[in-house]
Design the sequence.
């Protein structure tokens, strides 16, 4: 049977117009306004709030990586905290042991996570659904324990303390503000790369495998190749996020990458919106700020409040925050057309 990938995935419907603008134009306008707001935020909020927003941007990069695998390719992972940890430790070791500049540690951290993701993705080809989830869960449990060994490299259970980078001389920025802009730059680059990847042939292949694997195979899509690539690229994004997290916090230890981190990534992906690029940002804001809000509401039972928030979000927005906003725009567009 002859065919091409383009015939396996239906063509996009004509862009609808909302208030005289197409959805694509609204999307570009929203991205531009969001980026301008992000540039202004450090001058409006405190240093600590800048640090929190920096953490949210780091999580957004990790969530985009997880979304490539789970949202767009349909492979469930409960172990992305392990890739985050690998990226963090590669960056920390390069900075602490060999004095590598912090910005130069991001590519090797992403590459190390990519290699681990590909190696893990190969045997995972035989597994699907809950079985794959359980295997990735074992990785999330094993990696933090593994990092406690090789003390001369990883610092053992005590971890590694890093010197947080300062802003270049003459800018007059605090460390937190400078690292905010570093994280924003990395976020912009990674989201640009992710958007181009997912909107191209590779993205169509991943979605085709998720939705119609038999049809995708008939059209010549290499299932094994693309599934392995999805694991590797997803791990790469998460590894870069982990490296950036180590740079921003100035400390890594095995206990920082426990199972809850991996679960938080899954929660953020679902709350933000599975298989959506903006959903990674919304999900990151949720997992960064909602636990703090829950703790402020009740010191005695913060996780009960957190669970209540999660239930409300899932009940009100079952397609995630990005999905709810997209549905709202569609309703506005129909109203404007009428």
Sequence:
């Amino acid at each position: 049977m002859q065919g091409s990938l383009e015939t396996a995935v239906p063509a996009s419907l004509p862009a609808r117009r909302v208030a005289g603008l197409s959805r694509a134009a609204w999307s570009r306008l929203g991205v531009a306004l969001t980026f301008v707001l992000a540039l202004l935020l450090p001058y409006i909020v405190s240093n600590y709030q800048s640090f929190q927003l920096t953490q949210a941007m780091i999580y957004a990069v990790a969530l985009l990586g997880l979304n490539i695998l789970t949202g767009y390719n349909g492979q469930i992972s409960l172990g992305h905290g392990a890739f985050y940890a690998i990226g963090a430790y590669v960056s920390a070791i390069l900075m602490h042991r060999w004095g590598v500049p912090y910005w130069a540690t991001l590519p090797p951290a992403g590459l190390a996570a990519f290699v681990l993701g590909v190696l893990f993705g190969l045997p995972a080809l035989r597994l699907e659904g809950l079985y794959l989830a359980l295997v990735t869960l074992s990785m999330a449990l094993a990696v933090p324990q593994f990092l406690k060994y090789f003390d001369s490299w990883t610092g053992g259970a005590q971890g590694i303390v890093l010197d947080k980078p300062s802003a270049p001389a003459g800018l007059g920025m605090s460390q937190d503000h400078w690292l905010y802009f570093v994280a924003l730059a990395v976020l912009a680059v990674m989201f640009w790369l992710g958007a181009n990847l997912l909107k191209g042939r590779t993205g169509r292949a991943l979605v085709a495998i998720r939705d119609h694997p038999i049809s995708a195979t008939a059209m010549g899509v290499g299932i094994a190749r693309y599934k392995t690539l999805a694991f590797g690229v997803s791990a790469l994004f998460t590894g870069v996020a982990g490296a950036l997290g180590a740079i921003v916090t100035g400390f890594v230890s095995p206990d920082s990458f426990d199972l809850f981190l991996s679960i938080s990534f899954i929660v953020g992906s679902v709350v933000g919106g599975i298989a959506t690029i903006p959903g990674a940002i919304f999900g990151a804001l949720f997992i960064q700020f909602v636990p703090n809000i829950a703790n402020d509401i009740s010191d005695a039972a913060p996780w009960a409040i957190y669970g209540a928030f999660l239930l409300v979000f899932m009940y009100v927005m079952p397609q995630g925050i990005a999905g709810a906003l997209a549905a709202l725009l569609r309703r506005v567009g129909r109203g404007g057309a009428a």
